[in-house]
């Protein structure tokens, strides 16, 4: 199972925290052509031979495979050339691998602005006041707001979800609400994946600087 032409993907430089969103431009017999990111400040120079991981969605599942940078095309719009994996080298990302990152993002639900505690491509944990009305097993809809470092305009990500757990924290008059995403567009899932990679990178940098 390969990603499709024009499909959104996330490319991660192996053994680093650097990643970027891209798109599949073409699929050949031995290589893939993928778009070069517009903003390369976060990833720097990707040299020939660099080892990469590519993440993509198919149906409700996320998949990944390892690949290697072969170079760039010499077309008017250059593309990265990467090795095409064997079909059996493409693996499904297990739900537990959809890692969560701690992050405080704005989220709109039931016409109220809430704050996330953590986030993954599969769901989020949010904080609200005790009087925010929601019940376990309730189907909800909302909009997650993610910052965009390229054009500074935030990304608005609509979703449908299911409340799977509510934890009351009465000493601070708050409650934590765990939501599993049940319906969210693939392109938005990839934006969340990219954000989680970037957030993880930022947190590791902070940890190193604090030592």
Helices and strands in order:
Blueprint: E1 8-13, E2 19-27, E3 31-35, E4 51-58, E5 61-72, E6 79-83, E7 91-92, E8 101-102, E9 106-109, E10 112-120, E11 123-129, E12 139-146, E13 155-169, E14 174-183, H1 186-210
Antiparallel strand pairs: 1-2, 1-4, 2-3, 3-6, 4-5, 5-6, 5-7, 8-10, 9-10, 9-12, 10-11, 11-14, 12-13, 13-14
Q: Would you write up a description of this structure?
A:
The protein is mainly beta. It folds into 2 domains: 8-93, Electron Transport, Fmn-binding Protein, Chain A (Pnp Oxidase, Chain A); 101-210, Beta Barrel (Thrombin, subunit H), CATH 2.40.10.220. Helix content is 12%, strand content 48%. The chain contains 1 helix and 14 strands. The strands form 2 sheets. A 6-stranded antiparallel beta barrel has the order 1-2-3-6-5-4. A hairpin with a 4-residue loop joins strand 13 and strand 14 (174-183). The termini are far apart.
Q: Name the CATH superfamily classification of the largest domain.
A: predicted glycosyltransferase like domains
Strand content: over 45%
How far the N terminus sits from the C terminus, by CA atoms, comes to 44 Å
The low-confidence runs, each spanning 5 or more residues with pLDDT under 50, are: none
The assigned CATH architecture of the largest domain is: Beta Barrel
What's the order of the H and E elements?
EEEEEEEEEEEEEEH
Tell me, what's the shape? elongated
CA-based gyration radius: 19 Å
Percent range of helical residues: 10-25%
Overall number of structural domains:
2
State the name of the first-level CATH class of the largest domain.
Mainly Beta
Largest sheet: 6 strands, antiparallel, barrel
Structural class: mainly beta
Number of strands: 14
CATH topology of the largest domain: Thrombin, subunit H
Query: Treating each run of at least 4 consecutive H or I residues as one helix, how many helices?
Result: 1
Indicate the mean pLDDT: 87
Strand order of the biggest β-sheet:
1-2-3-6-5-4
């Amino acid at each position: 199972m390969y990603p499709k032409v024009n499909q959104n993907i996330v490319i991660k430089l192996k053994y680093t925290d650097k990643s970027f969103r891209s798109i599949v431009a073409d699929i050949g017999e031995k290589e893939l052509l993928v778009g070069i990111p517009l903003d390369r400040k976060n990833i720097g120079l990707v040299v020939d031979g660099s080892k990469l991981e590519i993440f993509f969605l198919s149906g409700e599942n996320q998949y990944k495979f390892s690949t290697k940078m072969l170079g760039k095309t010499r077309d008017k719009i250059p593309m990265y050339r990467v090795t095409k994996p064997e079909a059996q080298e493409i693996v499904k990302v297990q739900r537990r691998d959809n890692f969560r990152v701690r992050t405080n993002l704005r989220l709109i639900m039931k016409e109220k602005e809430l704050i996330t505690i953590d986030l993954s491509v599969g769901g989020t944990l949010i904080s609200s006041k005790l009087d925010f009305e929601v019940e376990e097993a309730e189907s909800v809809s909302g909009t997650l707001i993610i910052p965009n470092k390229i054009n500074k305009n935030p990304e608005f990500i609509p979703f449908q979800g299911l409340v799977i757990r509510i934890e009351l924290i009465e000493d601070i008059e708050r409650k934590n609400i765990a939501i599993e995403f049940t319906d969210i567009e693939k392109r938005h899932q990839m934006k969340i994946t990219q954000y989680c990679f970037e957030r993880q990178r930022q947190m590791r940098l902070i940890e190193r600087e604090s030592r």
